Amino acid sequence: MQTLTLHNDVSEMTLLAPFLEESCDLLGVQPDVAFQLQLVLDEAVANVVNYAYSEPGKEFQVTLDKVDSTLVVQVIDQGIPFDPTTESKTPDITLSVEDRPIGGLGIFLIKEMMDVVEYQRQGDSNILTMKKNLA
Amino acid sequence: MTLNVTKEGDQVTGFLAGRLDTAASQQFAIDMDQLKAEADKHIVIDCKELEFISSSGLRLLLALRKETMAKGGDVTIVNIKPEIKQVFTITGFVSLFKFQ
What we know:
The complex is a heterodimer. Chain A is α+β, with helices and mostly antiparallel strands. In chain A, 34% of the residues lie in helices and 29% in strands. Chain A has helices spanning 16-27, 31-52, 84-87, 106-113; strands at residues 2-7, 59-67, 70-77, 116-122, 125-133. In chain A, strand 4 (116-122) and strand 5 (125-133) form a beta hairpin. In chain B, helix 1 (22-31) packs parallel to helix 3 (55-71).
């Protein structure tokens, strides 16, 4: 399993791309799926960085693993309880330029890219688990 | 992430290079002001060197599109890679911009 520890500082999100590149190489993940993972993790990690903690300097983890033919990605933080899978409304992607709201796309993109998106609160941890079938 | 802007007559071109992700979006929001100032013109966003876009980047492009809508200009996206265009397609942003 590949693990990256980040702080809740947006500048640390620049560490995501090299982590994913290295991890996807090691796990033999195809480039198209690696691109989707970049998107998924940018959205999931941005949520933690922006909303999970009220103070700076807090750590959280991103993990990536391949179990049989399933890619398992987790984002684990000890911030305020927050279930992104139920909190977000599905955006209306048919709206015009004038009516289209700025934002609300993060969790939608995650659900579109991944096959399974699950949230658990375990003890003081938020665990967002996202799975993609590679077979 | 870099944005270089060139002007030729009524057309303004912004050349995007690198990753337009959450980490880059704060700086890009500031850089975009030079394009928003031209929102009454034909703005071309050249994505030839763009490697990645997340919803943070889409949000900023939508903000530019809204500005041009209000001021009579438009936005055309050119040279976009298929995997990046897919993000526009999934989110419905593909219908909000012209592509060439």
